[in-house]
Amino acid sequence: MAAKKAGKKASKKASKKASKKGASAKRAEAAADAEPQFPRRIYGVASPHSMGGTSLFEADAMIDQATVANFGSDPGLVQAAVDRLEAAGLEVLQANSVMINIAGSRRAYERAFNTTLEIRQRETVKSFGMEEVAEFIECPETDIDGLIPTAGSDFEDLLEGVALEEPRYLMAASPYPPSVDYWHLDVPGDVSAGCNADRAHRGGMTGSGVRVAMVDSGWFRHPYFVQRGYRADDAILGPGTANLLVDENGHGTGESANLFAVAPDIHLQPVKAQLVGTLHTVLVNATGAFNAAVALNPDIITNSWGFDFRFGPLSAASQALAASVAAAAASGIVVVFSSGNGHFGFPGQHPDVISAGGVFMHNDGSLEASSYASGFMSNIYPGRRTPDVSGLVGMFPGAKYIMLPVPERSDIDDDLSGGTHPNGDETADDDGWAAFSGTSAAAPMVAGAAALILQACPSLSPAQVRSILMSTATDVTTGTNRNGNTATVGPDTATGNGLIDVHKAVLVAKLRCRLLPVTPIVLPIHVPPLVPVHPPVLPLRPPLQPLIPPVAPVRPPIEPVRPLRPFAPVEPLQPLLPPPPPPFEGGTEAPAGPQQQPGVGLSEEDVAFLEQMVIDGEDPFES
Asked: Does a structural domain hold residue 223?
């Protein structure tokens, strides 16, 4: 009798799922036949005239932390632009000294900038690595994708252009997961052990005191996190978002478990991005959400999303996002991005980020390149190889590899539930668990490793953190990634420098702090929120004075800018050395013999030798 009831229940559930999928297919077919519809709320990024003389949207302008200061604007000009945009009926969501995040209807944009907008369809790689057609809002009056020119409009004297935001996609796994019988990892133990983080934890390095912002679909306080005592704020709402306690998709909640697995004592600052679409996988205001994370003044920002950008020039929206990434790195924030799941990921290929690829670990511990993860040489930034390092990622076609906590009945919980491999993960659609990975999982693992490095040596710059991760990674010499690149001995475009080794990375960071004089970090620029900001956000770092006089006009290629008013250097941290011996009590003279001064006696070559010991598997701290 019980079996009969169970059979009826299963049949009913299967019928319900089939009906739901059939209805979804019909809606998709109807949508395909209909004329493209403009969204009610279109997001954009307006750039006030740059003090350097070159527009933020100049097609050949390569924006990184050495040049981003050229694209700052006078605060009075920014405020005047904010006022005029609002008067024109556009909503100002956020503003800083480089750009203004806005939203409005199609009619509001066309009226304000005396233009016409249209929808164009282009092939792209969406979430789950699916190659499909996506819709982009364009202005036919310019050759730069997504750019509205301001010449001839009421904003000609204030703005050099407006970038219409593009769809960005969560770097999640396929919606067709395997059964629970497949080889998979559980959090936190399997992920921590796979990244060799357990030994670092036992040495007291757990990420304590390090703040990590995560730009994603939001964050839900799942019982999994509560029972383990993980530290996290409620989600901070990015521009245009609502419901701070709700993660409709589940992606951000699930991927944060990979971050905590590597760095259990970090302070998580989730930022909820504006997501749309049937499964809430399309990020439509990426720059605004990223800038909201920068305004929190974190140590690290991790991002498991991006866009497929194979060839330049960058679109207007991507130029604006590149400027935000460069400004964050220039202000000392470590920025991590997924390299993609078959995508030529952007901003994963930006030169100032740590790009996270994928390595698959078999149940015998052997490693090979993930056939699901991206890796390539950038056609936009010459010489830029991605990824830099890799985290743990499943294999093509599903990449169902890590069982992660998600909100009950969220999109991921429901869509990946039931069935058998490869059509489901055999979990219930309301149990709050789902199996998925992709380079979405790798990015928070790499960010967790960076957090432990900064705990061990807080004075390290973002570039130094990346260097340590790359020099200590475990080389992977077999397997082929999603872009067809094969792993070889040494760094390659399949896995970068290999799988992160957190223990070795922490040891090298300790060596850097203990054995070399600490050099103050000179930050070339920080882009603070404009005051007043919309909505008001109190800047957590003191605002910079404007460059006076402005830097000379710059024409591509842009030379690195030297601020005319250098930043006050950050106070150097004291080396982690034993306390000095107590004063000599036998008189006024010290005992005879050589007196060793802290930090003296070890050259950079000595430290490099000790670091190589760590890389070769020896621990110089063991007696």
From this structure: yes
Q: What angle do CA 103, 105, 108 make, to 5 degrees?
A: 95
Report d(CA 288, CA 284) in Å as an integer: 9
C-alpha distances in angstroms, 148 versus 307, 322, 373, 519? Answer: 21, 18, 34, 44
- Concatenated DSSP letters for 83-146? HHHHHTTPEEEEEBSS-EEEEE-HHHHHHHHT---EEEEEEEE-GGG-EEEEEEEE-TT-SSTT
Gap between the Cα atoms of 338 and 442, Å rounded: 7
pLDDT tens digits for range 36-95 = 789 999 999 999 999 999 999 985 668 999 999 999 999 999 999 999 999 999 999 999
Rounded Cα gap, residues 341 and 347, in angstroms: 13
In this structure, is residue 511 part of a structural domain? yes
Closest CA to 263 of 315, 197, 218, 203: 197
CA 198 from centroid of its chain's CA atoms: 24
What predicted TM-score, i.e. pTM, was given to this entire model? Answer: 0.78
What does the pLDDT read at residue 563? 38
Q: Which is nearest to 13 in space by CA: 418, 578, 399, 353?
A: 418
Euclidean distance between CA atoms 75 and 530, whole angstroms? 7
Classified as helix, coil or strand, 300 is: strand
Six token digits for residue 339:
């390299």
Separation in Å, CA 207 to CA 78, 265, 269, 450, 454: 38, 5, 14, 9, 8
- 116-150 confidence digits (pLDDT tens): 999 999 888 877 677 788 899 999 999 899 999 99
3-state secondary structure 111-124: HHHCCCCEEEEEEE
Asked whether 402 and 185 are in contact (CB, 8 A), the reply is: yes
Count of CB atoms situated within 10 Å of the CB of 13 = 14
* pLDDT band with cut points at 50, 70 and 90 for residue 622: low
Determine the Cα–Cα distance for residues 132 and 121; give it in Å rounded to an integer: 10
Tens digit of pLDDT for each residue in 172-189? Answer: 543 333 346 778 999 999
- Say whether 336 sits in a helix, a strand or coil: strand
Which residue in the block uniquely carries the two structure tokens 């990634």?
481
What CATH number does residue 304 fall under?
A: 3.40.50.200
Confidence of residue 169 (pLDDT cuts 50, 70, 90): confident
- Both tokens assigned to 66: 């050495």
Q: Is residue 261 part of a domain?
A: yes
d(CA 412, CA 393): 18
Do 336 and 389 touch, CB atoms closer than 8 A?
A: no
Task: State how many domains the chain has.
Answer: 1
Rg of the Cα trace of the chain? Answer: 25
Helix (H) or strand (E) holding 43: strand 42-48
Does some domain include residue 49? no
Query: For residue 489, what are the domain limits?
Result: 170-515
